[in-house]
What does this fold into?
Amino acid sequence: MSFSELAESRRCIRSYIKKEISDEILNKLLEAGRYAPSAGNCQPWHFYVIKDKTIREEIITKVYPAKWVMEAPVLIVVCAIPSESERRYSSRGKDLYCIQDTAAAIQNILLCAEDNGLGACWIGAFSENELSEVLKLDESKRPIAIIPVGYTENKPLKTKRKPLNEVVTILGDNENSTDLNSMNNDNTRSFMHCDMSGILFEDVNLGDSTFTNINMSNIHISDVNLSESTIHLSNLSNMKITDSLIDGLSINGIDINELLKKS
Ligand SMILES: Cc1cc2nc3c(=O)[nH]c(=O)nc-3n(C[C@H](O)[C@H](O)[C@H](O)COP(=O)(O)O)c2cc1C
It folds into this structure.
């Protein structure tokens, strides 16, 4: 998977199956966190790994009461150490840089989880005091995120994002400036690594969409615009397409019209 595909396919996962994570993969996640950039390379962070059932239960009962968190075999708690950034950058280090640094570490962990076929979620809605008490943290540590990590069979579809032209402004004169409306790919959809078996698609516009590594077995597509869409590496057994626009649809790099001629 390219980096762009990885960044796009990552989701917050809130459902895990019963499968342990090897220490080798767990180390990869922690290494990814450790390689994050930090202001002045202060690395003002500490990562707690919690596999212990009693401590996980205590977190769920006292800090973040969501049952799905207990399904994850491992929780990683990412803490900032504000004093380490303050020493070098005063209040900007204490109040801002150490939070930005740990956020970069958290995102590295989430992306590394995705890269290794794991699901993870960034949890920030908790009382820092309660979590500090449960983990018996010393006063130098500020817990920033709880990251449940585990394998999943329930990856949600793509979460919506604001269009590029709403969140990007290109400043200054630039004759060759890009038209953000043309960069805005909100009308094209990308479905990756998910199970769509048995789904019925009716009267929807999926033109220009990309389907990669999808289980589409027993899917029924009716009255759907699939023109110029691409399907790669997917399970298409018993897929039915009826009354749909399929001009330019390609499957594994072959145009649908070529496939129909062959059959
Ligand atoms: C700072 C921060 C705090 C978050 N806190 C929580 C949380 O407490 N519980 C939760 O279920 N998700 C939490 N999330 C996950 C967001 O809900 C999620 O990233 C967002 O809805 C987009 O979905 P996606 O990550 O699957 O693309 C948090 C994300 C961030 C960045």
Summary: The mean pLDDT is 90.
